[in-house]
UniProtKB/TrEMBL annotation:
Keywords: Cyclin. PANTHER family: PROTEIN CNPPD1, PTHR15615. InterPro entries: Cyclin-like_sf (IPR036915), Cyclin_P/U (IPR012389), Cyclin_PHO80-like (IPR013922). This is Cyclin. It comes from Stentor coeruleus. Gene3D superfamilies: Cyclin-like.
Length: 107
């Protein structure tokens, strides 16, 4: 999917917010791609100046468009519509990823 590096990092932050809030959430091979796709769509719509329609994301993600629409709304509810990420929080995630993968680039 064509998204900026920042969008992928925001999606990761949003995923962490969901898993911190919904401790009973069961992650497995049947649902993880739906959760990640939901996070990515929300992050793209929040951050990108141009983003694709949900029909594109649903096709790439291999799920029906109505299901993605529902997942997106549920995801927003799970994170209490808290989409803002401070520079400090973003940089913390960015630096952690750089350390983990051993690649240094400017954000």
């Amino acid at each position: 999917m064509k998204c900026s590096e920042e969008t992928y990092i925001l999606a990761l932050i949003y995923l962490d917010r969901v898993t911190a809030k919904k401790t009973d959430l069961v992650l497995n091979i049947y649902c993880i791609h739906r959760l990640f796709l939901s996070a990515l769509v929300v992050a793209a719509k929040f951050f990108e100046d141009r983003y694709y329609k949900n029909s594109y994301y649903s096709k790439v993600g291999g799920i029906a468009n109505p299901e993605l629409n529902t997942l997106e709304m549920e995801f927003l509810v799970y994170i209490d519509f808290r989409l803002y990420v401070s520079n400090e929080e973003y940089e913390n995630y960015y630096n952690t990823l750089i350390e983990y993968f051993g690649k240094k680039q400017q954000p």
